[in-house]
UniProtKB/TrEMBL annotation:
<dbReference type="GO" id="GO:0016747">
    <property type="term" value="F:acyltransferase activity, transferring groups other than amino-acyl groups"/>
</dbReference>
<dbReference type="InterPro" id="IPR016181">
    <property type="entry name" value="Acyl_CoA_acyltransferase"/>
</dbReference>
<keyword id="KW-0808">Transferase</keyword>
<dbReference type="InterPro" id="IPR000182">
    <property type="entry name" value="GNAT_dom"/>
</dbReference>
<keyword id="KW-0012">Acyltransferase</keyword>
<protein>
    <submittedName>
        <fullName>L-amino acid N-acyltransferase YncA</fullName>
    </submittedName>
</protein>
<dbReference type="Pfam" id="PF00583">
    <property type="entry name" value="Acetyltransf_1"/>
</dbReference>
<feature type="domain" description="N-acetyltransferase">
    <location>
        <begin position="3"/>
        <end position="169"/>
    </location>
</feature>
Amino acid sequence: MIYAFRQATIDEIDQIWTILQQAILRRKNEGSQQWQDGYPNPEVVRNDITQGHGFVYLENGTIVGYVAILINDEPAYAGIEGKWLSEGDFVVYHRVAIDEHHLGKGLAIQMLVAIEEYALQQGIYSVKADTNFDNKGMLRIFEKLGYTYCGEVYFRGAPRRAYEKLLSA
């Protein structure tokens, strides 16, 4: 298998939205409240891509994952109830989703490792993320990859668990 990680293009929005819809349904079927309020939606994905924040993970040229990546740009993180490990530059990612036909291969972990490599390429040594309290899969991934729980942040009025991982060159 050949894997690649790159910026998404606008003509890939339909494929990306299909993957996100699958993830939204998985969250619902697992009893999670995450992503059950109309977010994310196609307009969010379009904005990700047009602003250069949308990234895809590919297996043999086929899109199997999606994530939005931003640098130093998450206003909700300034209001953390808790404390971040670092105060400097950071990469933050949102909307992690893997195609349902490719689950169980560890692709989410591979994609998050690719995000860490992306951060280092930008000269940034902090990666921050958050997830819903009931997203057991993502919580396990944070643990496996050595993220530290830092506290709670709020999105659309709901608390989310916030994590940070410090990287070394």
